[in-house]
Amino acid sequence: MEAFTYLPGPDHGPSEIAAATGLSPTVVYRIVQSGIPVGLFVRGPAGRYWLGPGAAQVGMRAMAAAALEPGAARPILDRLSRALNGLSLLWVLSAHGPGRVVAEAAGRYGFDALGLSIGDFIRLGSTLRTGASGRAIAAHLPSHMVDAIAAEPLPPSAGPGVLRAPRDFRSALEDVRQAGYAVGREEMPGWPEVAAPVMWGDVVYGAVAVLVPAPLMPRDLAAPVALTTSAAGKITRLMSRGHGTASLLPHG
Can you give the pLDDT at residue 86? Predict the structure, then answer.
């Protein structure tokens, strides 16, 4: 199942899965066949297979078990927003393709302060192609998902600081992996942003982001970066209580 997650493309044959896992094609075939009756795998034409609805159900049960308690992140976001006089957000990875949704928000500003219509906010906020929080999440996704994100068109409402060239977007993801945070230069028009990933083991869960009005964002970003990465680390630790993951395949 992990091979299906990280190999490019939706469907795979036993030989391809065997090469990725180190198992023999015969063993892979038997495993896949045993998963078909319970919906973990679906057989397609030419002996190809893809993940089925049973695999999605397993994923939903896992995330439900790991989900933060309601309001658990709010005190952390409150402190971050007060310290930087900004709007703090907890974005989480969407289950409907590579995207994000707001799970929690805190601060003196409402979403209306961003100066966007609800439609523009959804289009700009849901894509991982824009914003520091988008890159903080995308940097920890499999390469075939990054390919799909990089190919997305930019929302018309994206601000002047957006990374327009796909190659610049990809390069920025490597910077995020190295530094542990991302910076946005008014990709949300008028609102610079600092973001850091929230992890569940070695899987990205989402990102903590703080948006500050441009006149109020310090020129020296050392404090915003330190505060944001600290907040993301605290929520990561909340996510990790009693949970662990093990990786069988590289995530590149």
Answer: 97
DSSP code, position 214: G
DSSP for 65-133, please give it. Answer: HHPPPTTTTHHHHHHHHHHHTSEEEEEEE-SSSS-EEEEEEEES--GGGG---HHHHHHHHH-TTSSHH
Give the list of residues 6+ apart from residue 234 with CB closer than 8 angstroms, or none: 76
The SS3 assignment for 7 reads: coil
141-175 in b/e burial notation, b at 16+ Cβ within 10 A?
A: bbeebbeebbeeebbebbbebbbeeeeebbebbee
Tokens representing residue 54 in the block: 């049973």
Q: Supply the pTM of this predicted model.
A: 0.82
Q: Please check whether residue 9 is in contact with residue 49, taking contact to mean a CB–CB distance below 8 angstroms.
A: no
DSSP-assigned letter for residue 11: -
| pLDDT 10s digits, 45-75 | 888 998 888 888 887 777 776 678 888 999 9
Backbone angles phi, psi at 69, to 5 degrees: -65, 145
CB 138 within 8 A of CB 119: no
What's the token pair of residue 16? Answer: 């391809």
The pLDDT of residue 221 is 97
Could you count the other beta carbons within 10 Å of the beta carbon of residue 133?
30
Cβ proximity of 73 and 91 under 8 Å: no
